[in-house]
Amino acid sequence: MFTERAGLIVWVSDLKPARNLERYGTVYYMSKKLHYVVMYVHKEQLEDTMRNIQGLPYVKKVERSYRSEIKTEYDRNVPDKTRFYTY
User: CB–CB of 65/7 below 8 Å?
Assistant: First the structure.
């Protein structure tokens, strides 16, 4: 139903030509101050897309986002310490 996507952080030298990154995937955010673009691409085409984006003249560096691999569900296995602080 849904295709698996992977996030990319693309560091650029100029934001005006960085609008052309739309043809490689979905641009999620563009930072004017720090000159980077957060975008999502298909996971199957990740390596090819990274190689193609890295070859663009206005791209400084391409990094893969590891947000999807970070654990976001936490379990509550910590003991209750309230009994130690009662009078």
Answer: yes
User: How many other C-beta atoms lie within 10 A of the C-beta of residue 71?
Assistant: 6
Where does 1-83 show beta strands of DSSP type E? Answer: 5-12, 26-31, 36-42, 59-64
- End-to-end Cα separation, the chain, in angstroms: 57
Is the overall model pTM greater than 0.85, yes or no?
Answer: no
| β pairing state of 36-42 and 26-31 | antiparallel
Quick check: helix, strand or coil at residue 2?
Answer: coil
- Which class for 81: exposed (0-12), middle (13-18), buried (19 or more C-beta within 10 A)? exposed
pLDDT tens-digit readout, 52-70: 999 999 999 999 988 877 8
